[in-house]
Write a structure and sequence with these properties.
The chain has about 210 residues and is mainly alpha-helical. It is built from 9 helices and no strands. The protein is elongated and about 55 Å long.
């Protein structure tokens, strides 16, 4: 990631450099001061997490880097909303979920522009063996059928393994709402799996949804 993500503001006197190994409080103060060194440290610390979350929420959407940049552009523009260091990671997670939700809804809105075959999905990395690629494609075909909000809650809870409270904070809803969304998504996902040859065999081999 490059420093060009920094929100452009009026010129200001240069800030002193951040220490080589800053604390979270120091990083947050630097971010509030629009210190480029603090912004680069935030990117170094969280870019991998954001990219992984986006992949798991959306699949192999390309260019994924554009969505990662979108996340951090929004984080930097709203960083003054974060007042405590402990709130930084949850804030980044919630922004990532918001960007993912937008991407899902945008894809649905523009689906009528092209009529793709059901198996015409983005290419999965060539390093993954063919059987695994087939499974990943089938998995995201199933996710495509879910309601966007339920899909996000399901992926964060089941795939990412986040606690209910963390999912609720990321989605900006109550824990009770997350539970309902995950439950509905699980029911719909299982029914979709039963209709897919690849996923049906995977479902039968596990013990979670049998």
């Amino acid at each position: 990631m490059s420093a060009h993500l920094r929100v452009v503001r009026k010129p200001r006197p240069p800030d002193p450099p951040i220490d080589a190994q800053p604390t979270s409080s120091e990083v947050l103060r630097g971010l509030h001061a629009r210190n480029p060194a603090a912004e680069r440290r935030l990117l170094d610390a969280y870019a991998g997490l954001v990219e992984r979350m986006l992949f798991r929420l959306l699949g192999d959407i390309r260019p994924l880097e554009d969505l990662v940049q979108d996340v951090f552009a929004r984080v930097f523009s709203r960083i003054d909303d974060v007042r405590e260091p402990a709130a930084l990671k949850p804030f980044i997670t919630s922004v990532t979920v918001f960007v993912a939700r937008e991407a899902i809804r945008k894809k649905r809105r523009h689906r009528w522009l092209a009529f793709f075959a059901s198996d015409e999905l983005p290419e999965i990395a060539a390093t993954v063996d063919p059987e695994a690629r087939q499974g990943v494609r089938a998995f995201y075909r199933a996710l495509e059928t879910l309601d966007p909000d339920e899909r996000l809650a399901f992926t964060l809870r089941i795939v990412e393994g986040q606690e209910l409270a963390a999912v609720a904070a990321a989605c900006n809803v109550s824990v009770a709402t997350v539970k309902r969304r995950v439950h509905r998504a699980e029911l719909a996902f299982v029914e979709r799996c039963k209709k897919d040859e690849v996923l049906a065999s995977w479902l039968a081999e596990g013990d979670r949804w049998t």
